Protein 1
Amino acid sequence: MTRLAIIFSLLATSALAQTEAAPDSSPIPPARPDSLTDETPAAEAEGEEEGELETMPGATPTEAEEAVPEAEPVFRAVASSYPEHAACLEELEEIGASFEEIEMVTEEDDRDCGILRPIELTEVLPGVTLEPAGTMRCETALALARWTRDHVRPSVAELPDSPEVTGLTNASSYVCRRRVGDPQEQPSEHSFGNAIDISAIELEGADPLPIQNRNGDADLLEAVQRATRAAGCLFYTTVLGPGTDPAHDDHFHFDVAERRGNYRICQ
Ligand SMILES: [Zn+2]
């Protein structure tokens, strides 16, 4: 009897725990009927590893989680509210970027990937193209525009003959993939339009300035690259680049991932 009582008691405690552990029920949009599998293939090979590790809900449901309503797709969870988005678009227009609002991006094969209110950015600032154009959230584009205006242009202006910045080479913007090298295969920030990779700064009348390992070059180009990279973290919450790991040896990775405590990863 005593044993039975203990079992009952344990069962009751467990039931209570489950109730308390149930999701905190922020409104959950209806799941797409075709999106119930989370067995998303690992990333395409191109990838890289973003530094942030704890922003995204787990991608693979445990047995316990399967019993409760499905979590919101990550791309919806990270989306800003409509008023925030509208304010962002206004600022992006004011700064002089060229862009187009495009239809919501979703992926049949991965319910977490997508962008609720994407834009296609073609010009970061007047006369500064993004080559090729990139799909991203407005916040990602606005950060790029501010970084270019306030830090890339002035830094490049210190080079001989003060060349004009005419473009940024876009190595990757929106793409649905997992972080390479992450044992949990968390989605890359590129999967939500939060990230942009810049592999070169294009200059008028001069060769482009490629992002590369310049450690120890001890010249002005190294100074420009260091200055612009450091300034990236004023606008983005993640900055990775040459020296971070082999996947980032030829570009800056910038993203606007939000983390607990608002901490930043500036490498
Ligand atoms: Zn990247």
Protein 2
Amino acid sequence: MTQIERLRSLGLFDARVPRYTSYPTAPAFSPNVGAREQACALAKLNPDEPVSVYLHIPFCERLCWFCACRTQGTASLTPVEAYIGTLERELELLAGILPKGLRMGRMHWGGGTPTILPPDLIHRLANAVKAVIAPAEGWEFSVEIDPTMVDRAKIAALAAEGMNRASIGIQDFDPKVQDAIGRIQPFYVTLNCVEDLRDAGVHSLNADLVYGLPYQDMARLDDTVSKVLDLDPDRIALFGYAHVPWVSKRQQLIRDETLPKEVERFKLAEHAARRFGDAGLRAIGIDHFAKPADTLAIAAETGHLRRNFQGYTDDTCPTLIGIGASSISKLPTGYIQNAAATPAYTRSIGDGHLAGARGHLMTAGDRLRARAIEMIMCDFRLDLGALRRDHGEIAETLQPDVAMVLRIFGNLVAATPDGFEIRPEGRALTRIIASRFDAHVPNGARYSQAS
Ligand SMILES: C[S@@+](CC[C@H](N)C(=O)[O-])C[C@H]1O[C@@H](n2cnc3c(N)ncnc32)[C@H](O)[C@@H]1O
Ligand code: SF4
């Protein structure tokens, strides 16, 4: 059996499993956990422990057809400005709940397109957050940047507010691919954006790429990879295209027959990864790459790599406060997601209460499994010894799952004295192996393919 046939027989091309940016994953959250639990947990945060903050901006001027993010198109800034007003109101509510003196170690603005905000709204929003949760010393402020929706004035405003990391949306540079995903972005526009960011003193840059897009082939992807390497980013995220038209209706504009077939898609990812490796980047987890001196690569090497809603991170902060429509908070008691639709979110905040609408309160078993899955996704291994140390004897409950993984995945997984390690040949199966430890697979949830 060839390697690809073996991976296929283990479900690589058929399994529909989560990306595990959280455990349990959002589809498993319950509507019985909401604003009340959110307020309780926020009030009890330890003011001496810095938190991470995520702000969601669910607006884009153009809606790319491939995109599965929670966002809406707008041709005018009127709804955006109204939304900033609602975020300010949410922050006022938070000010009445959070312990005094709480600081943020990190802030991330994601979307949608945060760079749809003009400079005055950037300052308004940043000031509103800082007035409630002051930045800790050495804090990091990262922003998702759409190169076609940004200019020097916006970059200057973000840099003045402390932005020191930027994540640039690229996806693919080939014109035919761009046309097929409804996202025209000439190389020079991205290059100018990168230069403007560096001129503004933002020296930590990530580039987002996607493989498996319509009309992508080896030559086109190879050319995109060369252009990306010319931009010299510190980190690269290479996401597999999640084709989920039943969730993201705009993806219905992408015809199935234009997508690379499963084996080709697999080879595209392998090829890009090889090129990044040849260029001296370290592979991080299932889909990231980083320069060896980058903190993400150092975290991976020292066992401090973590997984959060943005993907991989070196942020080990246990608490994340999500602000805005659909944002998810990770609190000591569990996960709480704000109302996903902007009107429902706006109504909650307008009525004077937090917008938590779904969530999950973690049991000891959930915490154990969450860490086990994170370990697999980050380190390609499961170490029962470490889990025993942090979670106690309950770690033994994973023994049957460990035995099952060793049995099912055979020589793609190596037994270690206290668990297992996924061999490099088996790493494409990482999400599938992680899902073996998921006790919350919701009925009827349909995820993207595992490869
Ligand atoms: C919020 S979006 C990007 C920020 C900004 N709006 C832009 O377009 O540049 C974050 C990233 O999610 C990734 N993404 C979105 N939809 C995806 C999908 N269907 N499959 C895989 N990755 C996806 C893209 O790489 C995208 O850059
Ligand atoms: S990729 Fe970015 S710009 Fe395009 S629809 Fe998604 S969030 Fe909006």
